[in-house]
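Budget justification note: compute hours in this period were largely spent on complex prediction jobs such as the one shown. Inputs:
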Amino acid sequence: MNKKDRWAFVGMGLLIAVFPGVALNVKCISHYVDVMVFAGIFSLVSLGLCMLMGYAGQVSMAQAAFFGIGAYSSGILTSRLGWNPWMAMPAGAGVAALVAWIIGVPALRLKGHYLAMATLGFGVIVHIILGEEVKWTGGPSGMVDIPGLQIAGWKLTSEVAWYYMIWSVVFMALLFCLHVIYSRVGRGLRAIHEEEMAAESMGVPTACYKVQIFVFSAILSAIAGSFYTHYVTCLNPGSFNLMWSIRFVLMVMVGGTQSLWGAILGAVLLTFAGNEWLQIFSDFEILVYGAMLLCAALFLPGGLASLVPKVIGVFRNSLTHLCKR
Amino acid sequence: MGTDFLQYTITGLTVGVIYAMVAIGYNIIYNVTEIINFAQGEFVMLGGLFAAFFVGTLHLPVFLAFFAAVIATGCVGFAMERFVIRRARNAGVLSLIIITIAVSILLKGSAMLGYGKDPHCLPAFSTRGPIMIAGAVLQPQVLWIFGVSALVVIALSFFFHRSFYGKAMLACADNPIAARMVGIPVRQMVLLAFILSASIGAAAGVIITPISLMDYDRGAMLGLKGFGAAVLGGLGNFYGALLAGCVLGLAESYCAGYLSSGYKDAVALIFLLLALFFKPEGLFGSEAATLKKF
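Corresponding output:
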């Protein structure tokens, strides 16, 4: 972690810590705490995807499938088999990791378009399975009555409690990711992104790193899925379809593929967009998403995070200008 | 038993030919640009919906509607290349994937905006009743589907191997820099590829709509299965795509008939994954083509 990241980390921590205090006292935005819980859950997914897209340079259209695997593992294990949710969560993550490994080893030999199509196909297969295995998943009508979470006998019922819990998990994940990208592994990953052949000839175990980061992103998605299940306490396959995979990619694209901070920013912005601001479009929000994705890819390939240094630069220039006068 | 089998075979070949047409659309764009156009399935959907609009609202005769829909979708392909892909010509693979996916979402959303969520139907091309073969029902429309797609495949092979423009397009596929050096306008060839591929997708959409109806949501699945056919047949290979499309269609139809209808959509996708993982050069792809792509 460098100095900038440390300051950003502290700054974001403070913002996140005071947010419920502000939001709950202003009537018209008091439900934003609830939205922020979802934003936290989706941030976990987008952090993993950002590592995969921005640092390893591989695209995955199957994040919603891993999210779904985590969610349904938790749902089935707790409500059908009576497991403790905290046991079901690592179990779900384990299942997702295993599936990601099985898919990842052959898929990551593929590049670019092929990998995108392979993960796309895999995501659709998982979605079909979730809809068809009625005995376990409840089929298209989904599952209800999934228990919530308990910490040391204390039930997490209020939104504020959930908010602080989920964002502390996000911060832990972020800390971990930041350490990874400034480590040997992270440098190797960036080398793969730049030029895979060159990276390999310099002794970076490219195949191994790509699979590892794919599995890591799947685990983060599955954990996010578990939290999602226990927060909403009901599930249906509609939350894990192709559109959601595209949304996760959009979160990373909007925030900036090369920045973990951007991934969180993108997740928060798009969650607010999806849950709040785009509600007036109802079904046609899909058009807005398409337009956003297109604009992000065409005009802002670095995402919003790439604007931050520019804005700071302009600010600094005008400041020095003012001081000189 | 025998009758069922025959019926499933007819159904399988019908959808298989449609997948093959989608696959051919992928192949044309891939051949010229090495882009996989994720919006290919949406062209099929647009073709069907345009035709339904021309027949249902403007009361055009169905053959005129066929050509009108093909031309209209060709215009969409033109706009996609001219206003989106051309802007992104220096973008990396990741951006191009995202861009074509974005276009596919936009097309899907616009179709929903324009046509609503209900499926649209189209009258069959000929009004004659179904033909019975050994107890199995053969809709005359199925014959139209076979006929149109055979015509498309034959016309395309003539185009690519006999005509000036076709040869120029193949040259772009082989080596864009060398093609430019001998004076082939590569950008125009790319534009042509998008128009051609959109039109063929649209033709597939129009001929399948009388049998299976069409709604705004069908594009993604058709696109994925068509891509399965394209990979299985070896990317860039038209006859391979045709054969692979039929294989996928038959597998899907037998699965629906004998195993489980819920999983029929998964069959083609599992084939796609197996092909990508174990034989990415496809059943009929050449070694040289593989080297180019990986």
